[in-house]
Design goal:
The protein is an alpha/beta fold. It folds into two domains: 474 residues, Rossmann fold (3-Layer(aba) Sandwich); 120 residues, ANL, C-terminal domain (GMP Synthetase, Chain A, domain 3, 2-Layer Sandwich), CATH 3.30.300.30. It is 31% helix and 24% strand. It contains 19 helices and 30 strands. Strand 19, helix 14 and strand 20 form a beta-alpha-beta unit. Helix 5 crosses helix 6 and helix 13 crosses helix 14. The longest helix is centred in the N-terminal third of the chain and has 17 residues. Bound molecules: 5'-O-[(S)-ethoxy(hydroxy)phosphoryl]adenosine. The site of 5'-O-[(S)-ethoxy(hydroxy)phosphoryl]adenosine has 24 residues, from helix 11, strand 19, strand 20, strand 24 and strand 25.
Length: 629
């Protein structure tokens, strides 16, 4: 894998990627194994959103993880798995063993009738089998869609139905901290609303009692017991779908973001190698869940393509105590540690005491992802975890970008607190004003767009291509719009300012306000609701809901029920932190909710609410201010 070793080399590569992107990317792609090479590196059109990377090449991403790595790294550890309970033994899976297990499960998938192009849902805990499940789907050309195991049965059913999946891979239960969470029963409930699922394969993890439906449900261990550990990889076209991952947007239901095989492979591997500056014997740990894009690109695909040793952790940072992350760092002598600002802030709140028995001296690089990292958290992380001498890579990217877009390269790009810093080679960000004019030069602030395709750019939103065009490529002509605000400072370094649309980022998880509102509105006494984000010390943003109810019940009772409804409809991550019962919502004369006012009130920023006299119902503003939480 091509590796950048100095700042001057970074600038040289960046320049090449601007002047001759095709030669830049083909040089990188050359180090992979192809069944057939491409006819043309890139063909693209941002108007209709037709993007073709490595046109007509043939490959299988798992051959690039296994066959390409096995000769030199067969006995090297691919995955270290740390269970939820620190008293349970970790598992070290070598590349050879992971390959064999993947082949065995690939055969099991084929035996159950899974073919190229079929969609398979993965709703599993953080266990090695979740990675094996993803890789086995990729091996047989099936399209996986991992659904975070904290989502409700309704959210799961919506995703299954949207992509018309044929199979669900799940477990009996899920250990998370001191809790044991039922998983299979959630699947059973979801499947009452789904007609496309033919079979369910259930991994035994917690050994709790589950119902198994004859002819539909099968145990994982039974499925693999008769299968061999050799399995031919399906030959895929570069642009064949690799996976779908659902993510929230500013409107309605989640979108199925589609990534294709070759471009995603090249980009996830290249960025992993260069951002983290992985060396052959390093142990790398990303604390994300495989249910999110970070888990896809930087626990599974990127590291394994590069022949790295990647750690998977089943549990939570606070169990059995708040030293858990640091204990794991010391236990496996982690060299690169990648986590989210929300975890840093939560652990920072406990002070330095939980660190006193940890050396953390193995760390070489620390990373941040998922939301803006505030300066205070940046310094705490840098000083106390990185001991002041580990480069901190603040990596900006999105489900739709497939891989890291703006970030320092560890040890190469100078660090600047709270700045994602510079774009990776091949990434051409532009800052635009609301009219779409490009703001050139330094000291400018606006909306972040990308003007040229990169290999792992979103290809479509599953089943609704127009939605992809409208959401990402229509706001600013000829550009991909990220939904984020950004500032380029006097040195040309980029600082991400957060979402400029109706998406809130709660603990690094994206939530569409409309999605939360829809869930709240399912409560039968709710007439209307409006949800906004507000600054939250630990979560980054909290969820603030204004709700109009038609009820004789006490406000407190309804508030409790609303929380339950959201938990049931979406899942615990979408629970409102604050609910204010109101008699009306501030609306314009055309009936549009003035969210700007609601955001200010939720943030305790009553000073400058702007002109409210043109509202349909100006009186309501005062009521809202007086009743604010
Ligand atoms: C936000 C996660 C600031 C951003 C990989 C983006 C960030 C959204 C950063 C995507 C960062 C991600 N600094 N903000 N380093 N990384 N974001 O799809 O608002 O779950 O649009 O992908 O997270 O979230 P997603």
């Amino acid at each position: 894998m091509q590796r950048i070793n100095s700042l001057s080399e970074y600038f040289k590569k960046y320049e090449l990627s601007e002047k001759n992107p095709e030669s830049f990317w083909s040089e990188i792609a050359d180090s992979f194994t192809w069944k057939k090479k491409w006819d043309k590196v890139l063909d693209w059109d941002f108007e209709n959103v037709s993007i073709n990377w490595f046109q007509n090449a043939k490959l299988n991403i798992t051959e690039n993880i296994f066959e390409r790595n096995l000769k030199e790294r067969g006995d090297k550890t691919a995955i270290i798995w740390e269970p939820n309970d620190p008293n349970e033994s970790p598992i070290h899976l070598t590349y050879k063993k992971l390959y064999e297990e993947t082949c065995r499960f690939s055969n099991a998938l084929r035996s159950k009738g899974i073919k190229k192009g079929d969609r398979v849902i993965i709703y599993m805990p953080m266990v090695p089998e979740a990675a094996i499940a993803m890789l086995a789907c990729a091996r047989v050309g099936a399209v996986h869609s991992v659904v975070f195991a904290g989502f409700s049965s309704t959210s799961l059913a919506d995703r299954i139905n949207d992509c018309q999946a044929k199979m669900v891979l799940t477990s009996d239960g899920n250990f998370r901290g001191s809790k044991t969470i039922p998983v299979k029963s959630v699947v059973d409930e979801a499947l009452e609303k789904c007609s496309t699922i033919e079979s369910v394969i259930v991994l035994e993890r917690t050994k709790q009692a589950v119902e198994m439906f004859e002819g539909r449900d099968f145990w994982w261990h039974d499925c693999v017991s008769e299968e061999t550990n050799i399995c031919d990889a399906e030959v895929l076209d570069s642009e064949d779908m690799l996976f779908i991952l659902y993510t929230s947007g500013s409107t309605g239901k989640p979108k199925g973001v589609v990534h294709s095989s070759a471009g995603y492979m090249v980009y996830s591997a290249y960025t992993f190698q260069n951002v983290f500056q992985y060396d052959e014997n390093d142990i790398y740990w990303c604390t994300a869940d495989v249910g999110w894009i970070t888990g896809h690109s930087y626990i599974v695909y990127g590291p394994l393509l590069c022949g790295a040793t990647t750690v998977m952790f089943e549990g939570v940072p606070t169990f059995p105590n708040v030293s858990r992350f640091w204990d794991i760092v010391d236990k496996f002598k982690i060299n690169q540690f990648y986590t989210a600002p929300t975890a840093i802030r939560a652990l920072q709140a406990h002070g330095l005491e939980p660190l006193k028995n940890n050396s953390l001296e193995s760390l070489k690089v620390i990373g941040s992802v998922g939301e803006p990292i505030n300066e205070e958290a940046w310094h705490w992380y840098h000083d106390n975890i990185g001991k002041g001498n580990c480069p901190l890579v603040d990596t900006w990217w999105q489900t739709e970008t497939g891989g890291i877009m703006i970030s320092a390269l560890a040890g190469i790009t100078p660090n600047k607190p709270a700045h994602a810093s510079l774009p990776l080679p091949g990434i051409h960000p532009v800052i635009v004003d609301p009219e779409g004019n490009e703001l050139v030069g330094n000291n400018v602030q606006g909306n972040l767009c990308i003007k040229f395709p990169w290999p792992s750019i979103i290809r479509t939103t599953y089943g609704d291509h127009q939605r992809c065009i409208n959401t990402y490529f229509s706001n600013y002509k000829g550009m991909y719009f990220t939904g984020d605000g950004v500032k380029r400072d006097h040195d040309g370094y980029l600082r991400i300012l957060g979402r400029v649309d109706d998406v809130i980022n709660v603990s690094g998880h994206r939530m569409g306000t409309a999605e939360v509102e829809n869930a709240i509105n399912e409560h039968e006494e709710v007439i209307e609701s409006a949800v906004v984000g507000y600054p939250h010390d630990i979560k980054g943003e909290g969820i603030y809901a204004y709700v109009i109810i038609n009820s004789q019940s006490s406000d407190d009772k309804v508030k409790g029920e609303i929380v339950d409804v959201v938990r049931r409809v979406i899942g615990p991550i979408a629970k409102p932190d604050k609910i204010q019962i109101v008699s009306g919502l501030p609306k314009t004369r055309s009936g549009k909710i003035m969210r700007r006012i609601l955001r200010k009130v939720a943030s305790n920023d009553f000073g400058n609410l702007g002109d409210t006299s043109t509202l349909l119902n100006p009186d309501v503003v005062e009521e809202i201010i007086n009743g604010a939480n």
